[in-house]
Amino acid sequence: MNSLAIKISAAIKRANPEETCSEEIMQYALNIILNTLLTITASLVIGGLLNNFTETLIFYICFSILRICSGGFHLRTATACNIVTTLICVLTPFLLNFTGSSLWIINAFSLIIMFLFAPNPDKNAQIPLRWFPGLKMASIALVGFNFIIGSSVIGLAFLIQSLTVIPWKGRLKL
After folding, report:
1. Is 158 contained in some domain?
2. pLDDT digit of tens for each residue in the chain (174 aa)?
3. Is residue 172 part of a domain?
4. Which residue of 2, 6, 82, 168 has the lowest C-beta tally within 10 Å?
């Protein structure tokens, strides 16, 4: 993806050198966009092939929205992130289904984690501290909403994302 981002940013710069930002900034932004598109596309294609398209889409959307609000740790490389995210989004709703008290426990566990640790943004995010209370409240509200909806897929998405917010010591580096 990085080489594609380099080629695209160079082409944009050549087409309009006066009104564009630096190639490095465009490469960075394009890497994020291209990697996100790759992960979404791969997840939905695989989910569709496994007859699990809707659940994969719901999982991906809920996981992503909560991640925007709550932050969480990042893997070392974009490739690792792409692979792990795709596998989580496709396999988790396909393999696991919780109902009743199990779903309630998952929701409660996620809610407690958000209350204790959210937001936990990436050190490079540069989010102003004054936004943290709002991000915490948004994270808590999102997780709390699943007590009303009662969706196993949403509960699992929130659980997996909430685990990334915990500031584990000596965490596995991929």
Report:
1. yes
2. 777 877 887 888 788 888 878 878 888 888 889 999 999 999 999 999 999 999 999 999 999 999 999 999 888 888 999 999 999 999 998 888 888 899 999 999 999 999 999 999 887 778 888 999 999 999 999 999 999 999 999 999 999 999 999 997 755 444
3. no
4. 168
125, two tokens? 């995010």
Classify residue 171: in a domain, yes or no.
Answer: no
Please work out, in degrees rounded to the nearest 5, the angle formed at the alpha carbon of residue 60 by the alpha carbons of 98 and 42. Answer: 120
Cβ neighbours around 155 below 10 Å, total: 28
Residue corresponding to tokens 């699943």: 146
Q: In this structure, what token pair is assigned to residue 66?
A: 């909560």
What is the rounded distance in angstroms from the CA atom of residue 134 to the CA atom of residue 131?
A: 5
* Domain range for 17: 2-165
- Structural domain includes residue 174: no
Tell me the HSE value of 23 on the side-chain side, using a 13 A CA sphere. 15
